[in-house]
């Protein structure tokens, strides 16, 4: 592998996480932006750390392999911070006595920090996802020589990342804010990945349906086609049309020609003459850096989807997952749903660092006690006991049917993917077929739903699940339906029965 | 099932005596017996005697009773049928009209009298007594953390065990928990197989999963078998067949039974035949929607035009309480056969049958397109 180590001074820091979700710390430190001198700060015990030091700690933790000087070299870029955090629908929320204003709290805790952005890397088999990410991480100094060797081996394991592993991808992508789609520019390879059998289409549709709106497309392996501009334009035009159809806005898609193997146009502007002739756009890292952080709904009731359950050190056990909305502080009680058991939060860790509070958009590990480990399963949701979620086994939803081989009828058995939850379900009723663009009812009680149609359906799951209406909490109102190893539809919850 | 006695008149009235020999026969009995039939069988009744002095003694008596069935209850796990009804025959211990619940079990004969034996019931008796239909298959559908151990007989799919464990994911610097969890999960599945699968009867064990879980499990199981010197597993290694499935849920059985490797091994069992018929129906719905219909109204109308080539019908519709409705369906089956069509009666215990039940229980593939039916609205309000 042509890894060159002269790349230094990484502007951002990247951590590899499980299921190819990459947490990118965005922006830079603003020293002393928000002072923690507000009154009524209940949890700011003397032990708590000021925003500045805390952020430093995190950076240090993330870039443990790099030298400390890197922290100072940060891009001169407009910081997107708290002005983004707006709360759209003011829903009546019961607030516990003595609770803090979550928004103010969030600003105080995170106002001065880089924002964490979760990115998922998707693409067809052998498009070069791992090589590209490996190289990018390497270039950023996240991976040293020894680790690099490990990555090379891991790539072999990556190879079968085909349809059997899409459930894992859904779990990963449902946690992501932005996505990087890797396509192979090699003649023939792009086409294989893009045709109906390939994963490029399915992945792109999936990430869009899971709520990712910003997408970077890395047109990889450009070295294989001699850095040809014609080939790049061809891929851009083909893929662009499709992505627009899939619902991405023009301004939110960026195409970048690069080579993961040669390391061209990844972290640094390209050096390849053939590419420089016609390309003057940003390199991949700049594109990633330019992603906007989506608003974090911190003032909504607390919800966290459980992604993993494991024994931690000490008492209790840990659950990890993504905080969808709201905030959680150590010492609070949470409701484990759908069962409805109460548990006590003993501690919260973020990136292996203990912390007192966690906000929407974070991926903490929460230590729970007062509940048996057996009673918490992957896909469960931790919620605020004062504002629990609806628990149901029957929902009405609006679905978008993908490119399917057999039509959906009533009684069609599917696997219901909701966050990290997998649940067998049945489409019990086809209520109406809708017009794709206007959403008007085309036909009531259709006999079947053919490919690429929109419809309102009723779905019944085998066990009760917790969902939210899409209009209330977007993250928990989205789901996917899969059958026989294929994603057949994406949907939004419109009614809970 | 053994047919011991049969006496059916031309008009359909008559009695049949049957001896269930295995669990599946109880399922057949469940489909044969309908409400208001008379069933005669041996049972145990608690009888209270009052002596001349007024003291009462109660003792259990084995006796033969005939009841008029009012309620039928089928227990899939124990494979028992409970029939509740009133006594209709004079008996030494039980008064006429007294309620009794008869249990039908394996190896206990019973006599069934019906006012009318229709073609579907008679066919069911023939099918149940056919000794060649005996391909017992076990299937283990699994994914990481979830496994179903099922037994598939020609007309039943029974979930014998469901193993659901959380396996911690791999995380930085701590792979042991993941591996331990996986080992524990494999161990449970293996124990489940040993407990629930009788290798004397089962001819083939299908192990299905997405990805490499099945291979890992297979390797684990036989490593363990060698370590513990487990003869049962080692001797039956050849019976295991690894197949791909997209998930560990029960409905993945549908994919497994359609797998070419499985089809060749299972040749022509009812289960795989049903899966294929269902697939053909969906295929037709995709390519020529005017030649595939479901729902009683559409199917009846297609039948009037003698358009039905294959009729898919769930045995659930024949078990309905409504006699008129049952008659209607029996007439439909007969009429399709008369016009040269094929009738497939799905077992509602199979996955494909479950799906058909959800799809109103009745569907048809037509000989020629009937686009006019599409405009007819299937009026149903359930």
| End-to-end separation of chain A | 56 Å
Oligomeric state, counting identical vs distinct chains: heterodimer
Give me the CATH fold name of the largest domain in chain B.
Nucleotidyltransferase, domain 5
* Helical content band of chain A: 10-25%
Task: State the strand order across the main sheet of chain A.
Answer: 1-2-3-4-5-6
Q: What pattern of helices and strands is seen along the backbone of chain B?
A: EEHEEEEEHEEEHEHHEHHHEHEHEHEH
What is the overall pLDDT average of chain A? 72
Number of domains of chain B: 3
Assigned CATH superfamily of the largest domain in chain B: eRF1 domain 2
CATH class of the largest domain in chain B: Alpha Beta
Protein name (chain A): Tr-type G domain-containing protein
Main location (chain A): cytoplasm
InterPro entries (chain A): EFTu-like_2, GTP-eEF1A_C, P-loop_NTPase, T_Tr_GTP-bd_dom, TRAFAC_GTPase_members, Transl_B-barrel_sf, Transl_elong_EF1A/Init_IF2_C
Subcellular location (chain A): Cytoplasm
């Amino acid at each position: 592998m042509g890894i060159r180590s002269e790349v230094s001074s990484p502007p951002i820091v990247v951590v590899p996480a499980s299921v190819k979700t990459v947490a990118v710390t965005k922006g830079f430190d603003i020293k002393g932006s928000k002072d923690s001198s507000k009154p009524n700060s209940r949890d700011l015990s003397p032990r708590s750390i000021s925003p500045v030091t805390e952020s430093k700690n995190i950076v240090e933790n993330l870039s443990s392999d790099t030298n400390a000087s890197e922290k100072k070299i940060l891009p001169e870029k407009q910081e997107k911070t708290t002005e983004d955090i707006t709360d759209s629908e003011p829903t009546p929320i019961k607030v516990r006595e003595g609770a803090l204003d979550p928004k103010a709290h969030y600003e105080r805790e995170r106002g001065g920090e880089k924002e964490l952005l979760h990115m998922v890397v998707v693409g067809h088999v052998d498009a070069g996802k791992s090589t590209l990410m490996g190289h990018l991480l390497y270039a950023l100094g996240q991976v040293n020589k020894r680790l690099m060797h490990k990555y090379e081996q891991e790539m072999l394991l990556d190879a079968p990342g085909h349809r059997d592993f899409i459930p894992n991808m859904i779990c990963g992508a449902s946690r992501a804010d932005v996505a990087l789609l890797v396509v192979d520019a090699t003649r023939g390879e792009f086409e294989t990945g893009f045709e109906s059998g390939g994963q490029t289409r399915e992945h792109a549709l999936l990430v869009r349906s899971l709520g990712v709106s910003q997408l970077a497309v890395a047109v990889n392996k450009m070295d294989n086609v001699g850095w040809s501009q014609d080939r790049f334009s061809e891929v851009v035009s083909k893929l662009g049309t499709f992505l627009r159809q899939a619902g991405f806005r023009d301004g939110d898609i960026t195409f970048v020609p690069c080579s993961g193997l040669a390391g061209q146009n990844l972290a640094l502007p390209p050096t390849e003459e053939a590419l420089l002739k016609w390309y003057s756009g940003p390199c991949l890292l700049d594109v990633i850096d330019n992603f906007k952080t989506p608003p974090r709904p911190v003032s909504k009731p607390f919800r966290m989807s459980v992604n993993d359950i494991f024994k931690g050190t000490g008492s209790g056990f840990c659950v990890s997952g993504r905080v969808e909305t709201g905030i959680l502080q150590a010492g609070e009680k949470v409701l484990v749903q759908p069962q409805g058991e109460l548990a006590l939060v003993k501690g919260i860790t973020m990136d292996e660092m203990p912390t007192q509070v966690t906000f929407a958009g974070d991926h903490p590990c929460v230590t729970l006690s007062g509940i048996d480990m057996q009673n918490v399963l992957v896909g469960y949701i931790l919620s605020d006991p004062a504002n629990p979620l609806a628990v149901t086994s029957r929902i009405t939803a609006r679905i978008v049917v993908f490119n399917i081989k057999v039509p959906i009828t009533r009684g069609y058995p599917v696997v219901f993917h909701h966050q990290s939850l997998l649940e067998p379900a049945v489409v019990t009723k086809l209520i109406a077929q809708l017009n794709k663009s206007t959403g008007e009812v085309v036909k009531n009680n259709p006999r079947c739903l053919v490919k690429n149609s929109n419809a309102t359906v009723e779905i019944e799951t085998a066990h009760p699940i917790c969902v939210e209406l899409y209009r209330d909490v977007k993250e928990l109102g989205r789901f996917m339906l899969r059958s026989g190893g294929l994603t057949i539809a994406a949907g939004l919850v419109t009614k809970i029965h | 099932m053994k047919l011991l006695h049969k006496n059916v008149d031309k008009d359909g009235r008559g009695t049949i005596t049957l001896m269930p020999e295995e669990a599946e026969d109880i399922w057949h009995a469940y489909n044969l017996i309908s409400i208001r039939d008379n069933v005669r069988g041996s049972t145990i009744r608690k009888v209270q005697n009052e002596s001349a002095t007024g003291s009462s003694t109660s003792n259990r008596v084995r006796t033969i009773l005939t009841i008029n069935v009012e309620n039928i209850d089928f227990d899939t796990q124990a494979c028992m049928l409970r029939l509740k009804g009133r006594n209709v025959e004079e008996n030494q211990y039980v008064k006429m009209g007294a309620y009794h619940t008869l249990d039908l079990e394996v190896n206990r004969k019973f006599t069934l009298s019906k006012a009318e034996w229709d073609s579907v019931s008679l066919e069911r008796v023939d099918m149940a007594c056919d000794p060649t239909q005996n391909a017992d298959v076990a299937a283990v559908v699994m994914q990481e953390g979830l496994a179903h151990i099922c037994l598939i007989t020609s007309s039943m799919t029974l979930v014998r065990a469901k193993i659901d464990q959380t396996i911690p994911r791999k995380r930085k610097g701590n792979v042991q928990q993941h591996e331990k969890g996986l080992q524990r999960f494999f161990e449970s599945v293996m124990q489940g197989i040993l407990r629930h699968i009788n290798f004397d009867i089962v001819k083939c064990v299908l192990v299905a999963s997405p990805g490499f879980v099945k291979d890992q499990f297979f390797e684990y199981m036989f490593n363990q078998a060698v370590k513990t010197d487990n003869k049962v597993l080692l001797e039956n290694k050849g019976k295991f067949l690894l197949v791909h499935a997209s998930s560990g849920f029960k409905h993945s059985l549908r994919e497994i039974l359609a797998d070419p490797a499985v089809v060749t091994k299972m040749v022509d069992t009812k289960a795989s035949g049903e899966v294929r018929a269902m697939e053909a129906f969906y295929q037709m719905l995709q390519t020529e929607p005017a030649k595939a219909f479901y729902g009683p109204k559409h199917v009846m109308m297609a039948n009037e035009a003698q358009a039905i080539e294959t009729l898919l019908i769930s045995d659930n519709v024949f078990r309905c309480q409504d006699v008129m409705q049952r008659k209607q369906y029996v007439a439909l089956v007969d009429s399709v056969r008369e016009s040269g069509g094929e009738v497939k009666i799905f077992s509602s215990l199979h996955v494909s049958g479950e799906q058909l039940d959800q799809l109103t229980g009745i569907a048809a593939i037509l000989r020629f397109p009937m686009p006019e039916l599409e405009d007819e609205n299937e009026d149903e309000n359930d």
